[in-house]
Specification:
The protein is α/β, with parallel strands linked by helices. 35% of the residues lie in helices and 33% in strands. It has a single domain, classed as P-loop containing nucleotide triphosphate hydrolases (Rossmann fold, 3-Layer(aba) Sandwich), CATH 3.40.50.300. Strands 1, 2, 3, 4, 5, 6, 7, 8, 9 and 10 form a 10-stranded mixed sheet that branches.
Amino acid sequence: MKPSRLWLVTGERGAGKTRFSRRVAELARKAGWQVGGLISPAVFEGQDKIGIQLESLFSGEARPLAVKKAQPSFNRVLGEWHFDAQALAWGNGELTNALAAVKNQKQMELLVIDEIGPLEILRKEGWTAALPLLNSLVYRVGLVVIRPELVETARQLLPALQGTITLEPGMDTQAEASNWWEECTRE
């Protein structure tokens, strides 16, 4: 198996980072790859983003992760978002279990972490298992979604980064993902 390669996916809000990551995961599964990680798609009500879902690429299970309006279990606040501490713990558990399982068996082929943000990078909270997992290099290809304002800090925390994929609003992220996947698997 080739050495691990870690790619940073960045772009402004609404650029399609999650759609890109999900499409790459679909293409990898279609190719027979073992896929794992976390995806965090937005939840909309009309045009308004009202929440964030958390989906495990390991198990397929999904849970509400964050909402704009405070609710009893959503007690971790970051800006306008209220995060569910139980969902954060569950996501961490998914990552920790994946690291243990992969170390005992074989290298994971695709690892996707969407996203590492201010909770992880600035507060050292949230998915604390993500950085050790990404730095463990127990995967063939890794994608980690990072906001543009945190890219430089992330580069210091993730020395294995090989490259950056920058998405722009209006891009066809499905086509970008397909093109990137073809290039990545050709190498």
